[in-house]
């Protein structure tokens, strides 16, 4: 069990570091786009780059939000690991397959419950 816990902690740590790096990168890109938007004319109708900047900003905001949610999910997975419930499906109480945890370290649901409850996250 200790090795499983160590492996899970390592996977969660790596995933969190990767996601945090992505959040930092997206935040820097968003800041650049916002600065570019502020420096440009506010007349998007006649500015050929206006729509591009607005669309890029929208994409970055959405990606940043998804990445922040991912960080929250990873932090919740660390809590489950500390409380001994990591790898246990929150709906049926069964084990979450190791392959699923390899692919989605923050998974809360087993494959069966995830398929039956697609609105639930992971």
Summary, kept brief:
With 122 residues, the protein is mainly α. It is built from four helices and no strands. α1 runs antiparallel to α2.
Keywords for this structure?
122 residues, 2 domains, 4 helices, elongated, zinc, zinc ion binding, metal-binding
List the helices and strands and how they pair.
Blueprint: H1 2-39, H2 50-83, H3 98-103, H4 111-116
Helix pairs in contact: 1-2
Structural account:
It holds the Pfam family zf-dskA_traR. Keywords: Metal-binding, Zinc, Zinc-finger. The chain is mainly α and 122 residues long. It folds into two domains: 2-86; 87-122, no CATH class. The protein has helices spanning 2-39, 50-83, 98-103, 111-116. Helix 1 (2-39) packs antiparallel against helix 2 (50-83). The chain starts with a helix and ends in a 6-residue tail after the last helix. The model has no long low-confidence stretch (mean pLDDT 88).
Low-confidence stretches: none
In whole angstroms, the N-to-C terminal distance is 23 Å
What value does the Rg take, in angstroms? 19 Å
Q: Given the structure, what is the number of helices? A: 4
Global shape: elongated
| Biggest sheet overview | none
Topology, number of strands:
0
- Share of residues in helices: 55-70%
Strand content: under 5%
**Topology order in helix (H) and strand (E) letters:** HHHH
Structural class assignment: mainly alpha
The average pLDDT score comes to 88
Number of domains: 2
């Amino acid at each position: 069990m200790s090795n499983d816990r160590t492996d899970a902690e390592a996977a969660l740590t790596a995933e969190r570091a990767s996601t945090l790096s992505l959040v930092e990168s997206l935040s820097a890109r968003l800041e650049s786009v916002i600065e570019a938007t502020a420096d440009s004319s506010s007349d998007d109708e006649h500015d050929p780059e206006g729509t591009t900047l607005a669309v890029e900003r929208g994409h970055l905001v959405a990606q940043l939000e998804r990445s922040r949610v991912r960080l929250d999910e990873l932090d919740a997975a660390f809590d489950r690991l500390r409380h001994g419930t990591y790898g246990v499906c929150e709906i049926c109480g069964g084990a979450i397959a190791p392959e699923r945890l390899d692919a989605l370290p923050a998974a809360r649901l087993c494959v069966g419950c995830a398929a039956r409850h697609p609105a639930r996250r992971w």
